[in-house]
Amino acid sequence: MLYKVHCQTVTDGVDIPDPWSFKLSYDKLVIASGAQASTFGIKGVKEHAIFLREVHHAQEIRRKLLLNLMLSDVPGVSDEEKLRLLHCVVVGGGPTGVEFSGELSDFITRDVHQRYAHVKDYIRVTLIEANEILSSFDDRLRQYATKQLTKSGVRLVRGIVKDVQPRKIILTDGTDVPYGLLVWSTGVGPSGFVNSLEVPKSPSGRIGVDEWLRIPSVQDVFSIGDCCGFLESTGKPVLPALAQVAERQGKYLAKQLNRIGEAGGGHANAAKGMEPGDPFVYKHLGSMATIGRYKALVDLRQSKEAKGLALAGFTSWFIWRSAYLTRVISWRNRFYVAINWATTFVFGRDISRI
């Protein structure tokens, strides 16, 4: 039997006039389509907020911020409008939201104030979180992060977003928060593609997989990364949507497929009834997050209740940078990243608008 995948071209962030369809035959299929940002059904998020998921999102954030800086310098703009244009709001106090808030505040303090002297009394960053920021981190690290973010100029607001409008967001307590730039970082959930698949799902709505990362209802199909989770019948919890999870799943599955191929099960249906080998086991190596100003958090506990090493400050920032550099795929890219960091440290960030 010949298996096929039906595909259609698509480019995120870019409109293409005539997408075309094509088919690909396969012997083994791995679904690793990732996830999409969670909006929790809140009205206006998709229309007015910018997510922190794709490269084009980063480009849009940069374009929007620099455009607002220029608009705020137009003669006749009221102080109230300047405060709105230069108010950067980040929703979501997880590692991604905290890292972005800290780096954005650092960028404003070190680079924007030099180029746009008039904005010093207007530009600000607000981080909105329903609960505690960095809830998965050690309490001491969380308190340190709160102190450092506040010190760097980030305003922390405890609240839940009810509605997003073109110029302001409304919290459940009725508070209006005007904004010029709104960044949404509240975690991820199943994408439309995952929801459309007629396969068993994990409790979180992701593609359900067994202990060997197989989709039990479909022969020769596997899934890894944010788009999948263990089926409830396995008795295993759904793993967090982290890069280290996807990376380890990828390495495990590569070994599995090589083993299957060496045993003569590489073709479609040839691995039916074959011994699956050792199941996938995930061991959490810890979490890291930068908070700007050459400071970061390193939490090497395997779980929130476990004991382990927890560091904060410049040493943690150095560890975070080093770990980040080791995860870059090629030596060429590592060199480019290191050079970029060095030039940014010496000359500051480029704030020209392209």
TrEMBL record:
GO terms for molecular function: NADH dehydrogenase (quinone) (non-electrogenic) activity. It is an enzyme of class 1 (oxidoreductase). GO terms for cellular component: mitochondrial inner membrane; peroxisome. Its cofactor is FAD. SUPFAM superfamilies: FAD/NAD(P)-binding domain. It holds the Pfam family NDH2_C. It is found in: Mitochondrion inner membrane; Peroxisome. InterPro entries: FAD/NAD-bd_sf, FAD/NAD-binding_dom, NDH-2, NDH2-like_C. The keyword Oxidoreductase applies. It catalyses: a ubiquinone + NADH + H(+) = a ubiquinol + NAD(+); a quinone + NADH + H(+) = a quinol + NAD(+). This is NADH:ubiquinone reductase (non-electrogenic). It comes from Ilex paraguariensis.
